[in-house]
Amino acid sequence: MKTLWQKRIFISLSFIFTVLIIESDIGDTFTSNQTLSLEYHLQERSRNIKDVCEQNKLELMWPQNEFRRNIKNHVWDFTHGLAYCPIAKVASTTWFLNFQAIMNINIQGFESMQESRTIVLEDDSFVKKGKRGKISKSNFKSIVRNITAPDNWNFKELTKVLEVMTPFMIVRHPFSRLVSAYEDKMLNPKFLSKRKLATAEELNSQPSFHEFVSWLLDTRSNKSGTEESWKNVKAFSPFFSACPVCQVDYSVIKLDGEGNEMDSWIRYLGLNLTSTEAHTEGGAQSSTNRALDYFSQLTKEQVLELYNIYKLDFILFSYKPDIFINAAKGHLTDDKMASLRTSSQPATHQSINQNFGSIFQIFNFGKPKKITKTSTQKDNIKDKKSLDFLNRAKLKQKLKIENFNKRGSPSMIS
After folding, report:
1. Closest among 223, 88, 73 to 151, alpha carbons compared
2. Reading across the β-sheet that carries 75-77, which strands appear in turn?
C-alpha cells in the first residue's frame, strides 16, 4: 500500500515538474520569437525609410543648422548607449520616466521640498523658485533633458558617438496621434489643471474636432513640412518634422504595432524596467476607435486634405488612411481615390547596405561602401575613437547625475 502511494506521489510530482519545464520553454520561445519579429520589423522599416528618403530628398532632408539643433535636443543616455528623439503624444512621457528610472535620477528630494514648501539655499537650474526661495515648480521632463543634454560637445563629436549608439523613435498612426493631440491641447485647457471651475464661456470656447481640422487645414495651406514651419504648433507636427529620419538611422518602434513592441524593445535593449505600458488610454484598439468617432464628423475631402499634410509620415512608416476616409462623410471622385491609392503605396525596396545607428551620407542613400582591408582598418580606428568618446561621455554623465542627486539632499534645506 505504501509503495502504491509512493508511486502515485512520484508520478504526480513528475507530471508537475514536466509541465513547469514545458511552460518555461514555451515562455522562452515566445519571448525569443517576439524579439526576432521585432528585429525583422526594424529592418523592414529601415529599408522602407531609406527608399522613401531617396525618393523625397527635397522634402525630407533637414537644413544643416536645424539638424544640428535637433540632434542636441535628443535624450542622450550614454550609459545604455541610447539616443531618443521624443515626439509629443507618442509615449514621450513614458520614456522620460523610463530614462529617469534606468539612469537612477532621483527627483523625490526636489518633490518633497516642493510639497513641504522648504527653502532652497543655493541656485539651481533644475527647479523654479519663488521670491522667498521656495520651489515653485519641479518638472521631471526638464530635469531629464537637462541631465541628458550633450553640454558643450560639438556636432561632429555627437555624430561620431552616434555611430556606436542606438538612436530610436516611437510612432503611431498619424491620425490617431492627431486626435490625441487635439484632446490634450484643445479639450484640456490650462484652467482645468489649475483646479479652477471652468465657466460656460470657457467651455464653449473649446473647438469641435471639425472646427479644429478646418483651422489646421487653413493654417497649413501652402506651407512646407519643415520643422521651422511647425514651430508654433509642434503638438500637431508630422513625425518627419520632429525627427530627422533621413539623416539618422533610427530604430522605429510602433506604439500600435503587432503585439507589444514597446515591451519587446525594452527586452531587446536589456533595460531593467518593471512597467512598460505607454500612456494610451484603453490601448491601441481603443485609441483607434475613438479616433474613428472623431473622423466621422469630417468629410472625406477634409480627410484627404489632412492626409496630404501627413502623407510622408504615412509612407515613411507604412500606415494607411483607408479606415479613416471610410469613416468620414461624403465620397471622393474616382480619380482622387486612384491618386490616393497610388500615393499610399509603400516604397519599392532596393538592395541597401544596412548599418544601424549610423548617420546617412547626405544624398547618397543605399550605395554600399566598397569593403577593402584599408577601409576596414580605418573603420576599426574610427569605431575605437567613438567608443573612447562614449566612455568619456558615460563618466561625465554619471558625475552629472551624482551631483544632481546630491542637490536634492537635506543639505540644501534651511
Report:
1. 73
2. 75-77, 82-84, 166-171, 251-254
Contact 45, 170 (CB under 8 A): no
What's the CA gap between 282 and 123, in Å, rounded? 42
Of the CA atoms within 13 Å of residue 265, those in its CB half-sphere come to: 26
Position 331 confidence tier, pLDDT thresholds 50, 70, 90:
confident
Length of the chain: 414
C-alpha 216: how far from chain center: 23
First to last CA, the chain: 78
How far apart CA 267 and CA 272 sit, in angstroms, is: 8
- Residues 296 and 324: beta-carbon distance below 8 Å: no
Cα 238 from Cα 271, distance rounded (Å): 29
Can you say how many angstroms the Cα of residue 29 is from the centroid of all Cα atoms in its chain?
28
Instruction: Provide the pLDDT for residue 308.
Output: 94
User: Among the listed ranges 25-29, 185-189, 208-212, which one has the minimum average pLDDT value?
Assistant: 25-29
The amino acid that residue 413 corresponds to is I
Average pLDDT of span 125-150: 67
Residue with cell string 484640456: 188
3-state secondary structure of 171: strand
- Percent over 90 (pLDDT), the chain: 45
pLDDT of residue 3: 56
Dihedral sign from CA coordinates of 229, 181, 150, 313:
negative
Distance CA 6, CA 188 (A): 67
Burial environment of residue 352 by CB neighbours within 10 A (0 to 12, 13 to 18, 19 or more): middle
HSE of 27, CA atoms in CB hemisphere, 13 A:
6
> Which one-letter DSSP state was computed for residue 165?
S
* Of residues 248, 253, 252, the one with CA closest to residue 365: 248
For the entire predicted model, the pTM comes to: 0.78
User: Which pLDDT score is estimated for 339?
Assistant: 74
- Alpha carbon 223 to chain centroid distance? 25
What is the spatial distance between Cα 99 and Cα 254, in angstroms, rounded to a whole number? 19
**pLDDT surpasses 60 at 71:** yes
Model pLDDT for residues 372-391, shown as the tens digit of each residue? 334 455 566 667 888 888 99
Buried-exposed string 365-380: b where 16+ CB fall within 10 A, e elsewhere: bbeeeeeeeeeeeeee
Residues of the chain by 3-state class (helix, strand, coil), percent to 5 = 55, 5, 35
